[in-house]
Amino acid sequence: MDIIKGTYGFRFADDRELALCKLYAAGCDVITDSSYYWDGLERTDGPLLLFQYTFSGEGIFENNDRSYRVRAGQAFLAEIPGPHRYYYPVDATEPWHFIFLLFRPDLISAHWRKFKAVAGEVPSLPTDSAPIRLLRMIVTDAAAGRITDPLIASSSVYQFMTELVRLQTTARHNRENWSEHIRQAAAYIESHYASMISIDQLAEQISLSKYHLIRRFSASTGLTPGSYLTRIRIEKAMELLRGTTLSIEQIAAQVGYSSGSYFIKAFRGLTGLTPGDFRSGGESLVYRKLFFD
């Protein structure tokens, strides 16, 4: 998808009846002149959030006492106004080709903080990742005049920020990003969920201390080993509840719980339903399966 160079601004009137994200500007540029310089403390168009992604060449991003060379495949995140500067370096050897999105923090600041806390203020993102593909589409639509009202603009901003956060979550949950120890631990839980007695048993199996296992497993998967074990047990229980006529006590025993009451408590804690309600539908929708993050 070829992107037309240019900056496209949006000044839609506020709709008091609807809470909308506010797109301020989007664009693509190729810089070859060192006069390109922005100081975040001198700008008067804030409050704004800026996401700027480099396709080729490089630029400088400075924030407080930190300085970065933002190269191909990297973005920088800036809050306007703020103590930052970004500019084209005088020693650059090729044009700085980038794409950017400017939007108000309304409704979206929590997404921004969450992504920035995990990815940092100069994250690396593949060119073919969902957020960058979407950003290219937004700028292309802007150039073609297809962002014609505040609802389309709001949807564009919200979807972009959602994809950024989702990218980090997906990367964390992708087993390819886990260490060999964590992959072994997860596989062991998935194979021995019905007979596991303790986390000490798991730590011994993969030759890690209990402390290091919990810390590394949580950092990689977003769950403690105990929570991961509960998740696997409840998912297996749901299959048995809907696919068999086994009693609650029998299912509890098959997935590793010592009693039906303990199983019911764990099931309700994760799903908000009792096993019986899940099986029958009760007063709720009749779920075949529930999905968890």
TrEMBL record:
* Gene3D superfamilies xref list: Homeodomain-like, Regulatory protein AraC
Can you name this protein?
AraC-like DNA-binding protein
Q: Which SMART domains match?
A: HTH_ARAC (SM00342)
Q: Which domain of life is it from?
A: Bacteria
Q: Which InterPro entries match?
A: AraC-bd, AraC_XylS_family_regulators, Homeodomain-like_sf, HTH-like, HTH_AraC, Tscrpt_reg_AraC-type_HTH
Protein keywords:
DNA-binding, Transcription, Transcription regulation
Instruction: List the Gene Ontology MF annotations in alphabetical order.
Output: DNA-binding transcription factor activity; sequence-specific DNA binding
HTH araC/xylS-type domain location, by residue? 183-281
